[in-house]
Amino acid sequence: MADQAFVTLATNDSYARGAMVLGKSLRNHNTSKKLVVLIGPQVSEPCQAVLKRIYDELKVVDVLDSGDTAHLAMMKRPDLGVTFTKLHCWTLTHYTKCVFMDADTMVVSNIDELFDREELSAAPDPGWPDCFNSGVFVFRPSVETHGKLLAFCTEHGSFDGGDQGVLNGFFSDWATADISKHLPFIYNLSSIAIYTYLPAFKQYGGNAKVVHFLGKTKPWSYTFDPKAKRISGNVHEAATHPSFLLDWWTLYAGSIVPMLHQQYGDQPFHSGCVEGESQSANPQQELELQMSSEERKEKWEQGQADYMGQDSFDNIKRKLDTFLK
């Protein structure tokens, strides 16, 4: 389907690496759709070159250079710069239908069936389910819609300071008008939701098709030992399940880093892959080992016990059995 496309946005090199993993994950799961990446002018030449190898179309977008309408809107609301940039996806009018995906998402299954949905289809946000999460949504490119969105942006702003507030304000009847536009949560499994409703994750998580790494700490914020298959980083900030992080890093280290090395050549760059001496711990153990007893206590008090790992029922039962014996 040459007139349908997955679309993402990368405003800098960090998010560009996320976009690389997203694009490669879509390719690996045999999408039949075109892949489009919108990038900001700050994305470096080597990263652009890698993106061009993965995506069918790369388009540089800069709000201040995007035409009079956006320019005038930007003058009134400079605080919404990144939001205006994301709204450029509606200008891709050589496509009849698109699915936008944030650069911090990754597919774990083919999701071409999303193109059977209509604008604006999206999954509920775990923080406020009457709003949709704008990390994954189905839309129809339209110059008219783009203009209306910019006008709405300028007049009403965003209740959350970003694109999600703008889009929920514009498509305000999403919660009530048409249930067919409510995507199942498996198409936008927000990582922070795993611990907030763990029984549901254990029941349905295996059906996940898209993982969304919400929160301040993104997958590329960690470091990875490819030999030991070990992830290191600030686990206290992590709001995702270690197996999803491992999937992201395995794909990034195996497929993306070699392409980056080719493009950077002799120029130094930080890939995030660091080989250490220890090769015994698995990623789950490594993440657990880094969490101090104080941090674990704090997690428990917040209702965020690691039910899938250290604090699993089997582990607790084993410790109780040992104690009682």
UniProtKB/TrEMBL annotation:
Q: Which InterPro entries match?
A: Glyco_trans_8 (IPR002495), GNT1/Glycosyltrans_8 (IPR050587), Nucleotide-diphossugar_trans (IPR029044)
Recall the GO molecular function terms of this protein's record: glycogenin glucosyltransferase activity; metal ion binding
UniProt-annotated location(s) = Cytoplasm; Nucleus
- SUPFAM superfamilies reported in the protein's UniProt record: Nucleotide-diphospho-sugar transferases
Catalytic activity reads: L-tyrosyl-[glycogenin] + UDP-alpha-D-glucose = alpha-D-glucosyl-L-tyrosyl-[glycogenin] + UDP + H(+); [1,4-alpha-D-glucosyl](n)-L-tyrosyl-[glycogenin] + UDP-alpha-D-glucose = [1,4-alpha-D-glucosyl](n+1)-L-tyrosyl-[glycogenin] + UDP + H(+)
Q: Which GO terms describe its cellular component?
A: cytoplasm; nucleus
Which pathway does this chain act in?
Answer: Glycan biosynthesis; glycogen biosynthesis
The record's region (Disordered) falls at 271-305
Q: List the cofactors.
A: Mn(2+)
- Please verify whether the record's keywords include Manganese: yes
A GO BP term here is:
glycogen biosynthetic process
Protein transport is among the record's keywords:
no
According to its UniProt record, the EC number is 2.4.1.186
Write out the function statement from the record.
Glycogenin participates in the glycogen biosynthetic process along with glycogen synthase and glycogen branching enzyme. It catalyzes the formation of a short alpha (1,4)-glucosyl chain covalently attached via a glucose 1-O-tyrosyl linkage to internal tyrosine residues and these chains act as primers for the elongation reaction catalyzed by glycogen synthase.
Q: Could you say which protein family the record assigns here?
A: Belongs to the glycosyltransferase 8 family. Glycogenin subfamily.
Output this protein's name: glycogenin glucosyltransferase
The source organism is Menidia menidia
